[in-house]
Design goal:
The complex is a heterodimer of chains A (390) and B (217). Chain A has 390 residues and is α+β, with helices and mostly antiparallel strands. Chain A contains 15 helices and eleven strands. Helix content of chain A is 44%, strand content 15%. Chain B folds into two domains: 4-67 and 102-175, Beta Polymerase, domain 2, CATH 3.30.460.80; 185-217, no CATH class. In chain B, the strands form three sheets. A five-stranded mixed beta sheet of chain B has the order 1-2-7-6-3, with helices on one face. Classes of the chains: A alpha+beta (390), B alpha/beta (217). The interface between A and B is large, with 45 and 34 residues.
Chain lengths: 390, 217
């Protein structure tokens, strides 16, 4: 008898738990994990069919935060969508801004001055540090290390948010990039503060790694758990650190060389096993490379304008055409697909959300593991529901 | 990487009779795309994935576009010679022709192995109402699984051969497809800056019994 043939137990909130007879496995149990559960990182639900403690089937359910971001984008001007991109992946508003600004610049053939390009790289790498530190904290939280590692991570994140606030006026909803540059130049002393942060971040990583990386419990909980084969990862469109943890050398910063990334000297760390531990480790290694990029950018940033003089923000109407443009966000490839019909609003405005597409393989990764492992695997995928549901 | 024209020629050589055309993109990005016929789309997609020169193993982005019915006005000029020997008389005749709208699904393909791309594929449905089926490319690229579900949910394109075609962002009981250009929101839909009086008027229309008695609904 298949799972779905059984009438669910009545409950005012719908079928939460139901027992299912199965010819081979005895009793299977269908459990709804979420939508309100701290381990789901937001309002996300997994309908899990359990054979004892082992996962036999897992279907993710989305849409609790859906507000049809794309429809709203098609009903507002190009500039009007910029603050709204902050709310996609609300930890990484700076990279969302950049991805959108770059797409519009490619749609309209807009140039960007050099100083603005440097500022964008600095902000994108700061965002990567912030995102990966948070991920390391949350992953530890999910695997049972309550509180302390997360607070260590949040202490560092706060320093980066202070920099964002000094620059853009907002900690998380930065709304900072514009088509053809950036909204405001760095205030006096900001670059020195960023240099101090980049200089000290390595010491934080050393401290964090000494506490966590060799930890026996972490290794027992993550090594060999949720192994992702490289070929499957590519076919499923997995991008970002999760793809590189599977050993696939693909980083949009290197492949597309957008912005001024070809000028910078950095390496792309790769995993060997594709398991959850590799996905944790790859983030730590990427942060070390981000520090290198930050130090080069903060050393070489030139003076000059931050907006292209030809840039138009209001009354902006790109010519007919379309573009798909992508950047390497902290969670993976974030892209925008825009079609212009010559009007003030995009005819089509599409976000390619990395954490949504990275979830495609959640079931494959979790099958045969326990519920507690599923929580850790989900934590290592690194999702933000504002972006998954849009 | 090969140009879209070269790819089209090789597709035509490999699949004689398969419709394939280049749709040009007038914008500065110049990402031209390849329009495929629904019939052969699956086979062509497999060819593009496995071809040693292209190896498009990574389908990055799948999305829908809604193109409404359009009325095309065509002007034709007819010149009739003047029997009196003067200049010929030119009359303009305008004919209106209705071009049926369609739903379009766009795939952006890259190659992880050879690090090139994008190649843009487009598939079009016959119309927007009763003939909205297209072949699913999920068996070719697993990354289409959730994205095609999203296109089905928000645009109403039905993907033949999709392993699990259900709504993904809207709830199961939802009717209609909100990303379509002619989507009309239900009459009890409110959004935040709606003035209070309009909300009340709408509510009276929606709940006539409460409104008829003069009581606030």
């Amino acid at each position: 008898m298949s799972v779905s043939d059984n009438p669910p137990l009545e409950s005012p909130a719908g079928p939460l738990v139901r027992s299912v007879r199965d010819d081979f496995h005895g009793d299977l149990l269908e459990v709804s994990m979420g939508p309100h559960h701290p381990s789901t990182h937001g309002v996300f639900r997994m309908v899990v069919t359990l054979d004892g403690e082992t996962i036999a089937k897992l279907k993710p359910v989305f849409g609790y935060l859906h507000r049809n971001h794309e429809k709203i984008g098609e009903n507002t001007s190009y500039l009007g969508s910029m603050p709204y991109t902050d709310r996609l992946d609300y930890l990484c508003s700076m990279t969302n801004n950049w991805a959108y600004a770059l797409a519009v610049e490619r749609l309209s053939g807009q140039a960007v001055p050099e100083r603005a390009e440097y500022l964008r790289i600095i902000l994108a790498e700061l965002t990567r540090l912030l995102n990966h530190t948070c991920l390391a904290g949350f992953l530890l939280q999910d695997s049972g290390a309550s509180g302390t590692p997360l607070m260590y991570a949040f202490r560092e994140r706060e320093k980066i948010l202070d920099l964002f606030e000094a620059l853009s006026g907002s900690r998380m909803m930065c709304n900072y990039q514009r088509f053809g540059g950036c909204r405001a130049d760095a205030p006096p002393g900001w670059l020195d503060a960023a240099r101090a942060l980049a200089g000290g971040f390595g010491r934080f990583l050393d401290e964090y790694e000494e506490l966590i990386t060799g930890n026996e419990i972490l290794m027992a909980r993550t090594q060999g758990v949720g192994r992702l084969p490289a070929a499957l990862a590519v076919s499923a469109g997995v991008t970002g650190p999760m793809l590189r943890a599977a050993g696939v050398d693909y980083d949009v910063r290197k492949v597309d060389g957008y912005g001024l990334y070809p000028r910078f000297n950095f390496r792309v760390p790769l995993g060997a096993h594709g398991d959850t531990y590799d996905r944790y480790m790859i983030r730590i290694l990427e942060m070390r490379e981000s520090i290198k990029i930050l130090q080069q950018a903060l050393r070489d940033i030139p003076d000059g304008p931050i907006m292209d003089p030809k840039a138009r923000l209001r009354g902006f109407r790109p010519k007919q055409g379309e573009v798909y443009s992508r950047i390497e966000g902290p969670k993976g490839e974030i892209g925008f697909y825009l079609i212009s019909d010559g009007g003030p609003n995009p005819y089509r405005y599409r976000v390619r959300p990395p954490s949504f597409i990275n979830l495609t393989l959640l079931e494959d990764l979790c099958l045969g593991h326990t519920v507690a492992d599923a929580v850790v695997i989900l934590g290592s995928i690194d999702i933000v529901l504002g972006e998954v549901d849009r | 990487m090969e140009s879209p024209e070269q790819i089209r020629d090789r597709v035509l050589a490999r699949f004689p009779g398969a419709p394939a055309a280049v749709v040009s993109n007038p914008g500065p990005a110049a990402q031209h795309s390849l329009l495929l016929g629904a019939e052969h789309a699956r086979a062509v997609a497999e060819f593009l994935r496995d071809d040693p020169l292209l190896r498009l193993d990574f389908c990055s982005n799948v999305t829908g576009v809604d193109w409404l019915d359009r009325e095309l006005v065509e002007t034709s000029r007819v010149s009739t010679p003047d029997p009196a020997g003067g200049p010929p008389r030119v009359t303009e005749a305008k004919t209106r022709r209705l071009q049926a709208g369609y739903l379009e699904v766009v795939y952006h393909l890259y190659s992880v192995a050879l690090k090139h791309g994008p190649v843009v594929l487009r598939l079009r449905t016959a119309n927007r109402t009763d003939s909205v089926e297209l072949p699913s490319l999920t068996p070719v690229w697993r990354s289409c699984e959730f994205q095609e579900r999203e296109v089905f949910d928000l645009y109403g394109v039905v993907f033949r051969g999709h392993p699990d075609l259900r709504r993904i962002l809207m709830w199961d009981g939802f009717k209609d497809h909100p990303m379509r250009k002619d989507y009309a929101e239900p009459d009890d839909y409110e959004w935040e800056p709606t003035p209070h009086a309009e909300v009340m008027a709408k509510a009276r229309r929606h709940y006539p019994a409460a409104g008829a008695g003069g009581a606030e609904p």
